[in-house]
């Protein structure tokens, strides 16, 4: 590769391509880049001054007083000491592991490896600290987040050198990550989750609010160890939780040093860090004292986290792998699009979950775009990130280095053509460097197309048909990001709207914001990070429903409204009419009462924990007769419970046509004669419950024999030769007035004709 200055071929865009603003040599004239390609005609802008570079596109509020590189040799990482932080104090371990520089293989530091007892101690400290932290206001917690941002900003030279030493990324990439971390802390501190007011009357108030989960664990990867740690720290603390960060064992230094330096800014136990080996992750995900896991990493590991966390139903947010497609339309300028494609794919040496990993270039411009992309890539400098000329660093760790090698080996063994590179060992040495490689139009079912390399090897493919390229772009188990590039923004937007990904960009890529929800679909993740949705993911929803004074039972206005509707539906309240005098004066030992006037109907007063009611018990008669027998008390403000019973045959037989048949599944009668009950029993309740049950057709019966309908709960209970169907109203009282969408004769007619 030709040695050029890191800024020479792209200007400051290389550093802040993922931010909201891009800087140019003549930024004052051009302003911010927009979402079309006709701006930024000069990708070879001159490099910014060191002072301007430190501003990182407005991420850092103040430039450093000295150029970063002038201080680069002053930091001796081996002189620093690293420790767990538990309850605000350093906590060493008996076991340690080594961290090495991936660019040189040189030793950097020994770091402690946490024991299970230390995890227990850390969780206990975090739980003890959480109530007091949650009791603070949003503004008080926001002030702390801004102090954490100040810590990074005031020591940016230190943290940038730590990042470069342990992760391998060049100075520009380290500065981008620190600047992003500052930005996320400050912007997240501005977010507030306000209460939602559902009811607010002189008598009653119902609100839903967000309350902290408790203790959160953040499991952070090695590609962006500081930034992705902050993505978990900032919302967790702002929502009122305490947090334990587990950095990657490959890149723990910057995170451990940052959290140690922040202990004077937060109460003890609020912000903790534990480094560990492969055992610590499973201990965290199964620990009963941890309420949520925020994980960023591979899909394979994410599945293990999800399975492990399910043991006690922890909340989880998973940001996992991707295989992002980038679609190039035929109207692009090849020279203009080439730098965009390159940095979309190779930023952070392609060790980026959201990197473009499959490039689809329209056949009309394929050769020209390929040539421009190869020409641009040849000018990129690969090397040690501490060298200011370096633009791409090494692969971060040996495991990933060997994984990337398998993609080279497979491409060579299958005879694929290389537009650039192809020799994995070209840059072999003490550092884990891999040459930039572009695979020319490999098959769609090839390993390089279907899997995620997470390294600097990129397939580019041709396309002609719009439907075909959309199908190919979506033909993956992942769905993290995607992008479409072209001057025909209408066509680009049309294609983008059909791509299956959590974030789809048009004429840009890697544009994120602390206010923008970010997450994947398919096997790229669960839940989202950032924005109000991300902040809400660190909370539980709690509804507070309360009356402002204690009233007489059954006299609540909403209950009264429902009861009045019942009475109006039944015309006017009347005395109960006895169906038959056959059983006059006979007692019903089970209920402890008498059959009035010897009829088949039994009346008694009951009172339970829900409401006062009159119970009308119908002795075995037809449903039609039962409802003709119902008449209610003239006290309109009461709620009622209505029970209808019919004798049940021990065998499953068809019901007579005049009876209710709602218990069918796949046209098979699963219940013979039945009993039904309606709580808060207006005639509308009866009508709506049975209509809902009829509409559902028993398609979705749970293992507990429960069927959830819209606003209604249907429970089927079987005992010996009896089957009971219980329909319970579980919606808001206002739903009583909902008009039925389906009629259910003859029951509706029976009710209407009472």
From TrEMBL:
Residues 93-543 form the Aldehyde dehydrogenase domain. Pfam families: Aldedh (PF00171). Residues 20-51 are annotated as: Disordered. The active site is at residue 319. It comes from the Eukaryota. InterPro entries: Ald_DH/histidinol_DH, Ald_DH_C, Ald_DH_CS_GLU, Ald_DH_N, Aldehyde_DH_dom, LUC3-like. GO terms for molecular function: oxidoreductase activity, acting on the aldehyde or oxo group of donors, NAD or NADP as acceptor. Keywords: Coiled coil, Oxidoreductase. Residues 135-162 form a coiled coil. Belongs to the aldehyde dehydrogenase family. PANTHER family: ALDEHYDE DEHYDROGENASE-RELATED. This is NAD-dependent aldehyde dehydrogenase family protein.
């Amino acid at each position: 590769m030709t040695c050029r200055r890191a800024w020479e071929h792209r200007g400051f865009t290389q550093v802040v391509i993922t931010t909201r603003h891009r800087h140019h040599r003549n930024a004052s004239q051009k302003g911010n880049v927009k979402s079309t390609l006709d701006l930024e005609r000069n990708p070879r802008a001159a490099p910014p001054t060191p002072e301007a570079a430190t501003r990182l596109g407005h991420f850092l509020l103040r430039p450093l007083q000295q150029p970063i590189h002038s201080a680069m040799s002053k930091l001796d990482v081996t002189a620093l000491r690293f420790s767990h932080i538990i309850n605000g104090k350093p906590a060493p371990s008996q076991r340690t592991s080594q961290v090495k520089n991936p660019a040189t293989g040189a030793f950097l530091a020994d770091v402690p490896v946490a024991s299970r007892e230390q995890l227990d101690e850390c969780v206990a400290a975090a739980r003890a600290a959480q109530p007091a932290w949650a009791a603070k206001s949003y503004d008080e917690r926001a002030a702390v987040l801004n102090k954490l941002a100040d810590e990074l900003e005031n020591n940016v030279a230190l943290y940038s050198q730590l990042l470069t030493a342990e992760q391998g990324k060049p100075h520009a990439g380290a500065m981008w990550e620190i600047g992003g971390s500052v930005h996320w802390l400050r912007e997240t501190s501005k977010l507030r989750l306000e209460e939602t007011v559902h009811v607010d009357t002189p008598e009653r108030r119902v609100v839903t609010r967000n309350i902290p989960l408790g203790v959160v664990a953040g499991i952070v990867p090695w590609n962006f160890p500081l930034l992705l740690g902050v993505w978990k720290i900032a919302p967790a603390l702002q929502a009122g939780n305490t947090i334990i960060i587990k950095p990657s064992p490959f890149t723990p230094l910057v995170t451990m040093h940052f959290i140690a330096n922040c202990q004077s800014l937060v109460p003890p136990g609020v912000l903790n860090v534990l480094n560990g080996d492969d055992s610590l992750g499973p201990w965290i995900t199964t620990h009963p004292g941890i309420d949520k896991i925020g994980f960023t990493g591979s899909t394979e590991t994410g599945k293990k986290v999800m399975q492990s966390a399910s043991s006690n139903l922890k909340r989880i947010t998973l940001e996992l792998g991707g295989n992002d497609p980038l679609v190039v339309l035929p109207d692009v300028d090849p020279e203009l699009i080439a730098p965009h494609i390159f940095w979309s794919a190779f930023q952070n040496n392609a060790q980026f979950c959201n990197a473009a990993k499959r490039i689809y270039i329209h056949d009309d411009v394929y050769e020209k775009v390929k040539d421009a992309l190869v020409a641009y890539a040849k000018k990129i400098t690969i090397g040690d990130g501490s060298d200011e000329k370096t633009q791409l660093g090494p692969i971060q760790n040996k495991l990933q280095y060997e994984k990337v090698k398998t993609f080279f080996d497979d491409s060579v063994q299958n005879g694929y053509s290389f537009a650039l590179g192809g020799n994995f060992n070209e840059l072999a040495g003490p550092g884990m460097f891999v040459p930039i490689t572009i695979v020319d139009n490999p098959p769609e079912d090839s390993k390089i197309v279907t899997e995620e390399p997470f390294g600097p090897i990129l397939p580019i493919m041709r396309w002609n048909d719009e439907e075909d390229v959309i199908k190919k772009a979506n033909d993956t188990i992942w769905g993290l990001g995607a992008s479409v590039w072209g001057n025909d923004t209408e066509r680009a937007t049309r294609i983008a709207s059909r791509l299956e990904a959590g974030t789809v960009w048009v004429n840009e890529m890697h544009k994120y914001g602390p206010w923008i929800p970010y997450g994947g679909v398919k096997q790229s993740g669960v839940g989202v990070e950032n924005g109000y949705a991300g902040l809400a993911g660190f909370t539980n929803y709690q509804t507070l429903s309360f009356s402002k004074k204690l009233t007489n039972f059954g006299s609540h206005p909403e209950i009264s409204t429902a009861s009045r509707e019942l009475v109006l539906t039944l015309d006017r309240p009347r005395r109960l009419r006895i169906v038959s005098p056959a059983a006059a004066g006979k007692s019903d030992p089970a209920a402890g009462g008498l059959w009035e006037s010897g009829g088949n109907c039994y009346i008694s007063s009951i009172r339970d924990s829900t409401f006062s009611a009159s119970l009308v018990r119908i002795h075995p008669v037809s449903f039609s007769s039962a409802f003709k027998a119902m008449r209610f008390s003239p006290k309109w403000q009461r709620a009622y419970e209505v029970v209808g019973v019919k004798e049940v045959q021990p065998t499953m037989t068809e019901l007579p046509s005049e009876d209710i048949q709602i218990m069918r599944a796949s046209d098979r009668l699963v219940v013979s004669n039945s009993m039904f009950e309606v709580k808060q029993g207006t005639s509308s309740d009866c009508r709506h419950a049975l209509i809902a049950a009829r509409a559902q057709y028993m398609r979705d019966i749970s293992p507990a024999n429960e069927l959830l309908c819209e606003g209604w709960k249907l429970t089927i209970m079987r005992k010996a030769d009896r089957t009971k169907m219980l329909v319970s109203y579980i919606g808001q009282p206002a739903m009583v007035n909902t008009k039925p969408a389906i009629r259910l004769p003859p029951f509706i007619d029976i009710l209407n004709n009472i």
